[in-house]
Each structure stands twice: as structure tokens, then as C-alpha cells.
Predict the structure.
Amino acid sequence: MTRNKSIYLLVDTSGSMEGIGMKSLDEVVENVIPRLKSVQSSQPDVKLGIGVIGFGDTAVWITPTSVSVDQWIWQGLESKGFTAMGGALILLHERLAEEDNNASFLSPLILIASDGGPTDEYEQTLAQLHSLDNFKSATRIAIAIGDDADRETLREITGSDTSIFTTDQIDQIINAIENNLYI
Amino acid sequence: MKELSINEVIPLQGGGKARVKAELGRGGQGIVYLVDVHVKMMALKWYHQHKSEQFRKNIRNLVDYGPPMGDAFLWPRYSTQLIEGHFGYVMDLRPEGYYEFGQYLLNRQRFGSVFAMIQAAMRICDGFQKLHLKGYSYRDLNDGNFFIHPSSGDVLICDNDNVGLDGEHSEIKGKPGYMAPEVVCGGHPDTRSDRFSLAVILFFLFMRGHPLEGKWASSCPCLTEKFERLIYGEKPVFVYDPDNDKNRPDPDVHRNVARCWGLYPERLREQFQQEFSNTCLHNPTERCVEMEWKNVIEHLRDNLVNCPHCGEEIFFNPECKCPECGKPIQPEFFGEIRARKIPFFADKLLFFDNDNTPDAEIKIIDCQMRIVNLSPTAWKATGTDGKSTILMPNHALPLKDATVIESTIHDIDYKLSVIKTTT
Ligand SMILES: Nc1ncnc2c1ncn2[C@@H]1O[C@H](COP(=O)(O)OP(=O)(O)OP(=O)(O)O)[C@@H](O)[C@H]1O
Ligand SMILES: [Zn+2]
């Protein structure tokens, strides 16, 4: 039976990400893509679907439906304004709530990349997320960009310090991703 | 131009001072002085020419953003203030014992071992991976940018003054022969053109010649701008393009490449064929990331062994025959770690992770092949009977079939399975 596994990438697109932060993240994603493709080809019966949310002044779906890994093309994102991380969690919650009732979905992989902290309300949404089984069982990885990332908040989302990486820890990021994706 | 005199004090951006102690050398772009910055000896690169505000601002940004991870880069640490229109930047001193990569290509300098050369390849890839992960592109990668230690293979990357944020406009195009086709044809260098230049550097390092210079290139009457654009830009053909043999090395002219190509494992040759394929030459987004190169080089390193008969460094091959002395070589044990399969011969160093520090060594002690834990943490070794033992750092364990060794390095778990060869 074919099963589905979603990979959600939540990307900070606030003004401060402009330049080196976003370039650095682009590079992480370019390193991750070939690995996702090889996971997909070695496990054809687990369909990996990608969803990307950008959060700046507002949170929006960049890759709105679950696109298959082979069709996914990463294009750098524009960044400006605030950090609507709470908004991004709302979008994530909507999707996870749907998946939670669908037996064909395995618990997802959630990656969040940010160089700051939320400028909107997020605690309530995070509490709602924590009431979903598939959020609790999800592998949650944070990529802290630059020196000013709000590690406190990232830890609230990932659940542990050991799941927060910097962009130069690419081997650790890939290891964490692969540990989750190889079933 | 303005030259500096001994004991002259140069004010730095941000308030510090650099006192000139001596001249270290001069090049096309400027003079490099030994300077004292708050009692630390450093190197000041002082440009002959006036540099644009944009160039100076970029150096200040590099200082502020800081170097990539690790210690491979001689990064701008301070920029000077503008003095009578002149300008420079301060970097760390290059230690003794390192030689410019170009010197190796000219055979004025030699690697102490194949192992050192492979380590150098790994460190070059590692440096550029870290630079790119930081969001920078190098833009002017060529044989003059690295200094390599001949016996350790350690690499220092210098001339970082053209580094900038990927995608930003740059004044520099690069050095002929190292520029990517799209840059030769008028484009701007970026991370993806860096990847082409990196593949050229690696080809030079392993094969001792240029990947696009074969029979067809040398048949061009003279290297005018028009032909250069053709060979390196518009219609480049890889010398070992499997689909097009018109540019094969001429054994009399391109002797090194013709001789070296067959010496390496298939995997390396395939990677070059991939990176210099028509697709990758013309589609920068198709070029592989440094991590993929690192995996290929890791494969070389895993298979580099000392022949038990003649002692030469050779690549273990499926035919199990030493290419130097022709004698059969069959390891008693293999190690499997993730998708890697490593033949165990005496004195082989094993690298579990990507930090280029050996984690284990295979040793013959009391006539028995053993694995020595070179890592700083204890390992757990479990035999077929299910019993586990702890192997402390610097301790050795006799190899037995089906033993599984578990270790954690930089927060990543590794499992090494020992497999006895059945004969
Ligand atoms: N960090 C350093 N520590 C010690 N010596 C250095 C350092 N950087 C450069 N040098 C020496 O200074 C001299 C000139 O440096 P370099 O070759 O970088 O100049 P350049 O103007 O960039 O030359 P070109 O552009 O012609 O390559 C060289 O002999 C080099 O070995
Ligand atoms: Zn031999």
C-alpha cells in the first residue's frame, strides 16, 4: 500500500533574512534536495510530498499543495517585513489537522528556518499543534540562521535543543532528516 | 601608489591599529606586509590601486559577517581606513610549510603521499561547501588561491577579497581556464560557476591537466579570444565525454591526463563525466553540490590501501589485484558503514564522519588484525553472541566476523559492521 509522508518547510522571509541569511538557507536546501530524491527512489511506496510556507509580514503557502520531491524546484524567496511565525503555525495546523484523520499519512517531517523570533501571536497555535498526535510524533527540526535566531521559541517548536542546527551543520541536518525518512 | 614604511601605523575600521613590521611579498594587486595588531602578528594586504567604494564596502561586510566555519580561510579580519585614497585589509598569517597549488601542478612541489592529495581534495571541497553554506560565492577560484601542506594535505584558502554574497554584482570574472562557460560567455560568477571551477581544480589535482583541453582544442590554430570563447565557453567538450570523442587527450601532448585517467576508481571518472557533461556544462543548476564531491572523494579514501606485498599506495579494485606489483590482494575483513564498504588492510585509517580526522586505524598487533579507537569517545562493540564490550579511546579490539561497532561523533550515530571475507 502506498503511504504518504509530508515534509513541511517553514521559511522566515522577514526583512532581516534578505541577503546572507536567505542565501545560506538556499544552500542548505540545495544540499538537502538530492538526499530527498535518493530517499524517494529507494522507497517508492512512501510518497514524499513537500509543502513550503513563507512567513514575513504574513504567512503564505509558497508550495501550496504537497508537491512530489521529483517535481519540486526550489527558488529563493524574497524577504521583507516582520516575522509572522505564528501565522505560519496556523497554516501548518490546518494541514496537520487534515492529515491526522487520514490513515495513509505517516507522521510528517517539519523543518523551520528562522533568523529571529515571532512578531505575532504564536503560543496559542503552538498549544493547538501540541494537541495533534501527528505533530507530537513528527520529527521537528529547526535551522537557526545567524546569531540572532530566537532559540527559545525554536525549542518550543522542536521540543529539544538537539534538534536546532546552524546552517554549517549540514551533516547533522541531513542525518536528522534521513533518520526520519528512511522507514 | 603609496607604499608603507616600517613602523608606519595604519588605522583600522572600528578603532584598532596595525603597525607595519616588514614586507612579506608583493603580487600583481598589492604588497603584503607583516603587521602587529594589538600584539598579534598578522598580514596586511595593501592594494596598489585605488579600490572602488563598492569593493571596500564588500570587504567591510566580509569582516562583519565573519569567515565560514573551520579554519581553512585566511579571511579579512579588519579593513583599514582610507589613507590618501589607498586601502587594504588584515588577515591571519599563513603558517610555514604551505605551498601554492600552482606549484604542485608545475611539479615544483610534490605531495608526500596519495593520501595527502586526497585529503587536500577533501579539504578544498569542504572549504567551498562551508563558504557556500554561509551564503557567499568565491567567484575567482583558480590554482593561485589555495596553499596546501604537502604531507598533511591541509588547505588554506586565500585571496578572499572577491568573495561576496551569492548573486550580488561582482567586478571580477575569474581566471581563464577556470571560468565557467556561462561566465566566459558574459555572465556573472556565482555559487554555481564556483562549482564548475571547483570541478576544474579537482580535475587538475587528480589528472594533472585541463578537462577541456584535448585534441580538438589543440587543433585550434591559436588561442585567440574567439577560440578561447569556443573551447571554454560556447562549445566546450570534455576530454573523456562518453558521447563525443573528438576532444580526447593526445597521448603526446596531454600526457598527464592520458596516463592518470585510468588510475582512479570508476566512481571518480564517472563523476567527472557527469560534471563535465553537456548538460552540466550548459545548465549551472545541474552541477552537483560539494557534498556529492565529498562522497566521491570519501570513496577514494576508503579504497586507498597499502599493498601488503609491495607497500605502494593503491586503490583497492574489484579484481583484487595490485596495479603496481600485480600480486593478488584480498583483505581478510571489510567494514560496512552506511552505504560504504571499506577493505581492511594493515595501517588503514578509517574516517566515520566528515571532519577529516581519522576515527579508527586497522593494526596488526600480536599477529592479529585489530581495530584501534582513535576517536575521543568510547565505542560499543557487539559480537555475534550478543555480548557487548566497551572500547575506550586508544584501545584495540581484535577483528571478528559480524562484530558491530557503534559510535557517536559530532552527535551523529555510526554503525560499523565487520565482515570476514569468505574464500
Ligand atoms: N596571509 C599571508 N601570510 C603570509 N604571506 C602572505 C599572505 N598573503 C600573501 N602573502 C605573500 O605575499 C605575496 C603577495 O601576495 P599575493 O600573491 O596574494 O598578492 P597579489 O597581489 O594577490 O598577487 P597576484 O594577484 O599577482 O596573485 C606572496 O608572496 C604571498 O606569499
Ligand atoms: Zn603491490
Q: What stands out?
A: Residues 99-295 of chain B form a domain with the Transferase(Phosphotransferase); domain 1 fold (CATH 1.10.510.10).
